[in-house]
Design brief:
The protein folds into 2 domains: 96 residues, Butyryl-Coa Dehydrogenase, subunit A, domain 1 (Orthogonal Bundle), CATH 1.10.540; 98 residues, Beta Barrel (Butyryl-CoA Dehydrogenase, subunit A, domain 2). The chain contains 6 helices and 9 strands, in the order ααααααβββββββββ. The strands form 2 sheets. Strands 1, 2, 3, 5, 6 and 9 form a 6-stranded mixed beta sheet that branches. Strands 4-8-7 form a 3-stranded antiparallel beta sheet. A hairpin with a 2-residue loop joins strand 2 and strand 3. Helix 1 packs parallel to helix 3 and helix 4 packs parallel to helix 5. The radius of gyration is 18 Å and the shape is globular. The N and C termini lie far apart (43 Å).
């Protein structure tokens, strides 16, 4: 077993390091006001960074968690806000969709993730429970091809830019950790609202609460 990076990994990370230090570092203060770093995101999309967690058949490169961690580390050295924005595309929500979503949803959303045209957000934290999933109250009731989602989430990144939200929820009231699943809610779904926002010390804007009484039909 070796813990050394391959030559390909070194070259890939090196390209990201050059971009971050030469371009992102100079613009870092610009995004401390909470604005989304679209300029940086488009440059990273051009390098294929946003598609790292997307399988090749949907336009990505299907790289592993270690590769994404190495890239995020280099970006964060120069601009934390950009690193958090990229985390939304290479992180949990993208991998959940790539692994578990119906084929039609994968083909509709994942190519846009690679190009930066489809920003994803994840809704996990709840005001009373934090990230203790066993105590989540948000619940999704499934009836045929319809899902009714009720609950409140907080600390949501990219809420204004996201086209789709991966919402961690209890399914049909099943208790404990075993009862937790995910519901994909797309922007504009009836009843899905953002009630407030706040600015963090790191420069990122977060939503105080979102996702309340959303009723949606599965899209295929």
């Amino acid at each position: 077993m070796t813990f050394r990076l391959s030559e390909e990994q070194r070259a890939f990370v090196g390209n990201v390091r050059k971009l971050a230090q030469n371009e992102f570092r100079a613009r870092a203060l610009k995004y401390m006001d909470g604005s989304f770093p679209w300029e940086n995101i488009r440059q990273l999309a051009g390098l294929g960074i946003l598609g790292m967690a997307v399988p090749q058949e949907y336009g990505g490169s299907g790289m592993g968690v270690l590769d994404t961690a190495l890239v995020l580390e280099e970006i964060a050295k120069s601009c934390y806000v950009t690193a958090m924005a990229v985390l939304g595309e290479v992180g949990t929500q993208t991998r959940i969709i790539a692994s578990y979503a119906p084929e039609s949803i994968k083909r509709r959303l994942l190519p846009g993730v690679c190009t930066g045209e489809c920003i994803l957000a994840i809704c996990m934290t709840e005001p009373h429970a934090g990230t203790d999933v066993a105590n989540y109250r948000t619940n999704a009731t499934v009836a045929g091809d319809r899902v009714r989602l009720n609950g409140v989430k907080t600390l949501i990144s990219r809420v204004d830019e996201a086209q789709a939200f991966v919402v961690f929820s209890r399914i049909d009231g099943k208790p404990g950790r075993e009862g937790i699943g995910c519901v994909l809610v797309e922007k504009g779904a009836p009843g899905f609202t953002v009630t407030s926002r706040f600015h963090t010390m790191g420069g990122e804007n977060l939503a105080r609460s979102a996702s309340r009484t959303a009723s949606c039909r599965w899209k295929t």
